[in-house]
Design a protein that fits this description.
342 residues; alpha+beta; 3-stranded antiparallel sheet; 11 helices; elongated
Length: 342
């Protein structure tokens, strides 16, 4: 069965990420989603893949009987662009937004981290819900825009591109499906403004899909790599501070114009961060590194490691000297201890 990345609301995904698929039934560990294949968790996502021209009925508006019901029970994974838009809307830093409105979770054990919206304390209700609807509607997250459509993102093991299709989410409480309003998935996506959100989160999705599709082949990411992933994807303001530091700037060959864009443009910085992560995690070099600086840093690291080993060796020698000063050869434990041999 494929793996699922559950990025959606009320434990229902707007994005189901498949690391790989295959047309061969003899290829262990890979599969294609069929009309009868259901995800390995309780889900109202209909197990049928649709293209953008599929037509369905749906309408949501203030006054419908289920208005705000979806916002009272949330499980919403945020994309990096979601966080960028919301922290700007609220006029706070990304670090402050993370502290007040989110909580982290692991997408897979000891793997890459995701971030979810934090409900009102003691409830499952969205902090941005009001009696009039969403208080940040113009900057609402991707998952909210997509509902009741689910985005299915897949990548074959032997390919370098991901493909998208869609599914329909049908929940008992949602009355929008009963409305006499017919439109295609593409029309609904356009109406909800998800094209921009999808495009600007593509780099993030590709990182997750590639990590899943490669599996053990790339080994377990280091702690520093996982920390960098979180910083780049979710804490953009602190990532900017890192990129603007002298040590970082001297390591990469970028033009003055490029450095200025990274300093002033959040979207530019986010996209640069996705490239940096591909370079760190998968060795896909697209950001020129200053060879002389890289060599100096490697030499510095080697010198640091040698110095640490020298300190450790000296400590071991001192311990042996103390040991020798306390016990003579006959008194050492290996000789059976002292006493009895006069």
């Amino acid at each position: 069965m494929p793996e699922f990345m559950r990025c959606g609301r009320f434990s229902r995904p707007y994005l189901l990420a498949y690391p790989h698929q295959s047309d061969s039934a003899t290829n262990p560990g890979t599969s294609v989603m069929s009309d009868t294949m259901r995800p390995p968790f309780e889900s109202p996502v209909m197990p049928v893949q649709y293209q953008g021209n599929h037509t369905f009925n749906f309408r949501c508006y203030k006054g419908i009987g289920c208005f705000n019901a979806c916002c009272k029970s949330i499980d919403i994974t945020l994309t990096p662009y979601d966080i960028l838009r919301l922290k700007k809307r609220l006029g706070i830093t990304s670090a402050e937004f993370l502290r007040r409105y989110t909580f982290p979770y692991e997408m897979e054990k000891d793997g890459l981290a995701g971030v979810k919206l934090l409900p009102v304390e003691g409830t499952t209700q969205c902090q941005f819900m009001t009696d009039e609807g969403c208080s940040v509607y113009e900057d609402r997250p991707t998952a909210c825009r997509y509902y009741p459509v689910a985005l299915l993102s897949m990548r074959k093991q032997d390919e370098y591109i991901d493909t998208n299709s869609y599914a329909i989410v049908q929940e008992a409480h949602c009355l929008g499906h009963n409305e006499e309003r017919s439109l295609t998935i593409d029309e609904y996506r356009s109406e909800q403004g998800v094209d921009e959100y999808d495009e600007l989160a593509r780099g993030w999705r590709q990182l997750i899909l590639k990590k899943k599709s490669l599996g053990p082949a790339i080994g377990k990411p280091s702690k520093r790599s996982l920390q960098l992933f979180f910083l780049v994807c979710y804490n953009l303001d602190d990532f900017r501070a890192m990129t603007m530091s002298e040590g970082f700037r001297e390591g990469y060959e970028l033009s003055a114009e490029e450095w200025t864009r990274l300093e002033t443009d959040d979207v530019e910085l986010m996209q640069f961060g996705f490239r940096l992560l591909k370079q760190v995690l998968f060795g896909e070099v697209t950001i020129p590194v200053r060879a002389d600086v890289a060599e100096r840093r490697q030499a510095k690291l080697r010198a640091q490691w040698a110095a640490e080993e020298a300190v450790a060796a000296e400590r071991r020698k001192q311990q042996e000297d103390v040991y020798d000063a306390i016990f003579d050869e006959d008194c050492k434990p290996s000789a059976g201890g002292c006493g009895g041999n006069d």
